[in-house]
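User: I'm preparing a small set of examples for a lab meeting where we compare how different chains pack in three dimensions. I only have the primary sequence for this one, and I'd like the structure in token form so I can line it up with the others. Please keep the answer compact; I'll paste it straight into my notes.
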Amino acid sequence: MQDVEAIPKVPEELIQQLQAAIEAFPKANGSFKTVALADASMRVNMHVIPFADDDAKARFKLVQQDQRAMLDSESDLAGIVERVAENTIKLATLRAISQDPRNPAVSVADIDWGWALIHKSIDSVSQGVARYMAGSNAEALRKLVYGHIRDAAGSGIPKSVLMRKAGVTKATPFELDSALQWLERSGQVANVGKPDNRGGRGRSGEKFVATELVRAAA
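Assistant: Understood. Below is the structure token output for the 218-residue chain.
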């Protein structure tokens, strides 16, 4: 399903730019030969993309150090984090080629660009794991409840509103209370409702806020 009209073909300008990059890229014998993909005689001509300077090489070493630090601190994501440096330099190399296909060289800017994309990807995966992956129904409910409370920002969310949130409506009162108690005791949320626990019109006066947001505001 698409909400916008599909583009029927690749833009001609992009095709021309890509062709120009292919023709400009360094060749082993100075020429470019187009062969069929099934041609057994086809050989790969390797071309090493160097670092632009010592600063770029040093910057990539910092990325490798960042990878080792993340492996030590985020063992649950080891399968993803262990490819941080590899994927960063791949993206940086592609950017270097697109910037100057005739004489590509990986610069500090290329590495910073690649690292920014990879870092954002890891951050997105990490947040997704923290919010949605669970080993039990109880843990899944706690994460769901906490997500709704955190989404309410520093103003917090009344329990009566929380009870009507997607997913929470499936929980029994006991299950919801257990999840809230667990989150309170673990220090992740705080009840900032009225001391007498009366919200008027028969509603509970309980109101919850994520403690990390309270600390950030302070």
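A couple of notes for your slides: The radius of gyration is 27 Å. The beta strands are 157-158, 189-191, 198-200, 203-204, 207-210.

User: Perfect, thanks.
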